[in-house]
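User: Show me an example of a complex going from sequences to C-alpha cells.

Assistant: Sure. Here are the input components:
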Amino acid sequence: MTSPQLITSSLPAWIVFLPFLGAVLMGLLYLTFGTDRSLRRLYVVLGTGMPIAATLLGFVVIGDLFSLGEGGQILSPLFTWVSIGSFSIDVTFVVDRLSMVMMLIVTFVGSLIHLYAVGYMWEDEGFGKFFAYFNFFLGAMLTLVLAANPILLFIGWELVGLASYLLIGYYHQDPANIQAANKAFILNRVGDFGFVSGLGLLFVLMKQSGFDFPSIFASLENIDPAMLSLVGLLLFVGAMGKSAQIPLYVWLPDAMAGPTPVSALIHAATMVTAGVYMVARFAPLYDRIPQIGIFIASIGAASALLAALFASWQNDIKKILAYSTMSQLGYMFIAVGLGAYSYGIFHLFVHAFFKALLFMGAGAVIVALHHEQNIFKMGQLGSKMPWVSRSMLVATLAISGLPVFAGFFSKDAILAHAWASGHTVIWGIGVFSAYLTAYYMFRLYFVVFVSPAHDAPQPLPLPRSMIWPLGVLALGSALLGFANLPEAYGGVGSFSQMLHLPDHPVPLGHLREYLLDGFNVMIASLGIWVAYRQFGRARQSLPIPAYSLAWQKALANTLYIDTLYDQLIVRPLRMLSGFFESAIDTLLLDGVILAVVKGYRLIAMQFARLQNGQLRWYALFFMAGVSALSLYLLVATGGV
Amino acid sequence: MTVNPDAFFGLAVLLFSLGVAGVIGRRNLLVIYLSIELMLNAVNLILATFSRLRPDEGGSVIALLMIGVIAAEAALFLAIIVQIYRTKKSIDTDTFTELAQGKKL
C-alpha cells in the first residue's frame, strides 16, 4: 500500500453546502410567499440546479481523486467544532474511494430523481416546500457520506432521519401518513440509541487519541476484542434501524406513504443504504470481529428471505418495492458481514440505479392511473406507456439477476462469496430469496404491464421530465454491472479494486463460479417462469387475489408482525405509561406535591386567624413580640 | 435629699404596665390613647432618672423634647379619633374589623 496522499480542497464542502443552501433559500421563499404558483419555475431552477451543480462538482472532485492514486483523500476542513484539551472534533468533509461512490450515487441519482419530482409534484400545493425538504435531504445525506469523523457521520445520520420523517408525513392531511412518519422516526430512534451507544463506547475505549476515522482505525489493536465486538454490534443496531433489517424493518413499508420520488430517493436509493455504508466505512473495525460479521450476514439473509416472502404476497405496488428494497439490503449486509465489503458497496451502487428506476416507474404508473396503487387494478399498461414499461422491464431483469444486467454481476458476486467462504446456509437462503425476487418482480411486471386490465382506465399523459430520467437509469441498470466484471468473465473486478477496502476475497475456481452463476440464472428463470404461468398468460383481467388458506392469509398480512409488535411492545408500553400516568404520576408525585400544598394552606389558615382585625389583639402580639425580643437581648448580653 | 432610684424605676414600670394593660384590655379609643400617653411618660421618667444618675443632661433634654412632641401628637391623635367617630359613629375598637382575615377569635 502506498502512503496515502492527502490534498485539501474546498470542493467537497461546497458539494455538501449547495443542497443545504437550496433548502434554505426555497424554505424562505416558501415561508414568505406560501403556495404562490408563479414561483414554481424558480423552485425548479433552485431545486434541481443545486443537486446538478453538486453533481458536476462531484465529477471534478472524482477526477482529482483519481489523480492521487490508491488511498488518496481530498479533505475539506471547515472549522474545529469542539476542542477540549488535546482532543478536538473537526467539521471536515473527506472524499476517498468509498465516499466517492456514495457521493456519486447521492448526487447523480439524486439529481435525476429531483428532475423526475418536478413532473411528479407539479400540481402539488406545496411544491416549494417539497423541494426545500428534498434538497435538505440531499445535503444531509452528503454530510453523512462525506463525514471525516463518526460524530459528523452521526449528525448526517440524524438529519437524513429528520428529512425522511418530514417527507413521509408530507401529505399530512391524512393522519395515517403522520402515523407512518412517527413510526419511522421512533423505530429509527431505537436503532440510533444503539448507534450512539456504540460510538460512545468506542470513544471511551479509544482513550483520547482523536476521533476521526484514521485515528480510530489506528488505535483498534489496543482495544479488547470483546469490547470491540460490543461496539460493532451496537453500531450495527443503528444500521438495522436505518437500513430496515430484522427486527427494526417495520417502518419501511409504511414509509411508502410519502410521495413516490421520496420513496425512490430516500427509501430505496440512498438513505436506507446508509447502514451498509456505515459498516463498510468501519470495515477495519468489523474486520477484527468476524463473529459479529457472521451475525450481520445472518440478519441480512433472514431479512432478505422474509422481505422476499412478503413481497410475493403484497398487492400494493409501492409496498412490493419497499419489501424488495429490504430484501436487497439484506444481500448487501450478507456481503459486508462476510468481509466482501466492495461487493456490498457494488450491489448498493447498482441497486440505487435499478431500485430508483423501479420506484420512479411505479410513480409514473400511479400518477397515470390517478393514484391507484393496487397492481390488480392495473393492467395492459405495456402498450399504453411503452417507455415506462420498457425501462421497468430493464430494472426488473436487473434486480432478478439475469445475465448482462447489473444485478447479475453484483448479486452473484455476493452469493458466490457466501458459497466460497463456506457459509452454505446463508448462500442457500440467498439463492431462495433470489428465486422469490425474480418471481415477485415479474409478478408485478406481468400484472401491471401485460395482463388485461379490469376496466381499462386511460392513463394520463405524463410530463417529459418523468420519462427521460427513467431512460438514464435504465441505461445504468443495464450496463453498470460491467464496472465490476469478475475475472471469470474476462474482467478484473475493477470496481472492487478501485474501492480499496479490506476485502477477504476467497478464491473460487472459474468452473465453480460458472456453475454457481448458471444455477442462479436457472433459479431466477424458474421464478420468472412461475410468475409467467400465474400472471403472464391471463386472457381475462386478473381478480384481486382472495386467500383462503391460513398460511396464505398470514403471508399476505406480513405474518401479522406489526400486530405482534403492537401486542408485545407497543401495548405493554402503553399500559406501562398508563400505569405511570394514573398511579405514579397522579397518586405519588401529584399526591406529594398536593399534600405539601394542602399542609401549607392549613398552617396558613391557622396563622390567618391571628389577623382578626381587632386592634387590641394586634397590640397584644406587638407587646408579646417586643417582650420576647427584650428578653432575648437580656439573655444574650448576659444581663440575667 | 436623695431618693433611691429604684423607686423611680419601679414607678416607671408600674406606669408602663398600666399603659400596656390599658392598650390591650380597653376598647375605647380615648382610653387607649390615655394608656399610650401613660407608657410614653413612663419612658420619659426613666430618661430623666438616668439623666440625673449620671452626669449627662442628654436624657433630660430628650425627655423635654418628647413632651413637646407628645403634645403635638395629641392634637393629631384626637383629630383622628374624631374622624373615626364620624365614619362609624363609634370609638369602640371592636367595630373596626375591616382588616380581619379568617374567623374572629
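The lines above are the inputs; the final block is the predicted structure for all two components together. The interface with chain B takes residues 605, 608-609, 611-617, 619-620, 623 of chain A (CB under 8 Å).
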